[in-house]
Amino acid sequence: MASKTWLITGASSGLGLAIAEAALQAGHKVIATARNPTKAADENPQSQNWATETTKKVEEAIKQAGGVIDVVINNAGYSLLGSIEDTSHKFPRPHKWKNTLEYSNRAKYICAELGLDFFLAHMQGMSESLARELSPCGIRVLLVEPGEFRTKFLSAYIEPAAGMNKGYVGTPLEKFLQVFKSKDGKQQGDPAKAAQRILEIVTNTGMGAGKEGFLRVPLGKDCYERFWAKCESMQKNLLQMKGIAHSTGYDA
After folding, report:
1. What is the pLDDT of residue 58?
2. What value, to the nearest 5°, has the Cα angle with vertex 230 and ends 187 and 154?
């Protein structure tokens, strides 16, 4: 397998770090970005090329690596807990645009991306569009959607300073937030195995061989089961609405 150059954002911990380690162990070059590259380099000496998550620094790192990027893992992000009502005024808008701009700026290099944050639906839609747009250029897009993996994701979260709106007390939202916090350190997913599967899918080796034509990559049994339930729900919805959908055309 020929060595590739990988650009991995948010690589100082969690899945980003696991992917970087897997790529390095397989003989690939890795450009890893982090909010604090000095600290990341001290904690992860095995990854030699660190850059801050800014366009200029990333471009400099790419030039130092030879000017060619084969694989981009767009993984940087954080967990924001709360209802849309409690968070929409202060957090999502700047964060959403930041993600959109970062994603678009790196799109010319993209081969794989990780999406697990508040704006997952937004990233899903963009990934679908990118896949269609970039396919004629020979650039492959993957939408990797992890379930619960044992990283720091469930402990390094941000909540609205005012807390949860009292109107949500006793609702499914409150229960979900309680479960979310209680699962930290108990997740069944192994980040190292997830990273290996991603490596294999990107390089068309191992369990990833023959999977070139697919966009979505669900990781974890829990994620797969939620995907399946969603597909069944969508199918039921479509069947029930078929008559309504077909009733809106001009009469022959």
Report:
1. 74
2. 25
